[in-house]
Design a protein that fits this description.
It contains three helices and two strands, in the order ααββα. It is of the alpha+beta class.
Length: about 80
């Protein structure tokens, strides 16, 4: 798993993004698919996608993400 936290305003983050798309790195990154994991406040894994539900995100709707998030939101939160 590669987890990257950054911001569009961050020059180092922008350079890292360029390097992710470098010809030498792209085949490695392209072989992976998008996935989500849910952790509790202690960092313990509650759920990890195993079927690539968001692998074809470009063909999905925002409501698909909303449905997923609603399944995992804290009880009583809006």
């Amino acid at each position: 798993m590669l987890l990257d936290f950054g911001g569009d305003w961050c020059t180092d983050c922008q350079v890292l993004d360029l390097y992710f798309h470098d010809a030498g790195n792209q085949p490695i990154i392209a072989s992976e698919v998008p996935a989500l994991a849910i952790l509790n406040s202690k960092g313990e894994l509650l759920y990890s996608q195993k079927t690539g539900e968001f692998e074809a995100m470009r063909h999905m709707q925002s409501s698909d993400v909303t449905e997923f998030l609603n399944r995992w939101k804290r009880p009583g939160s809006t």
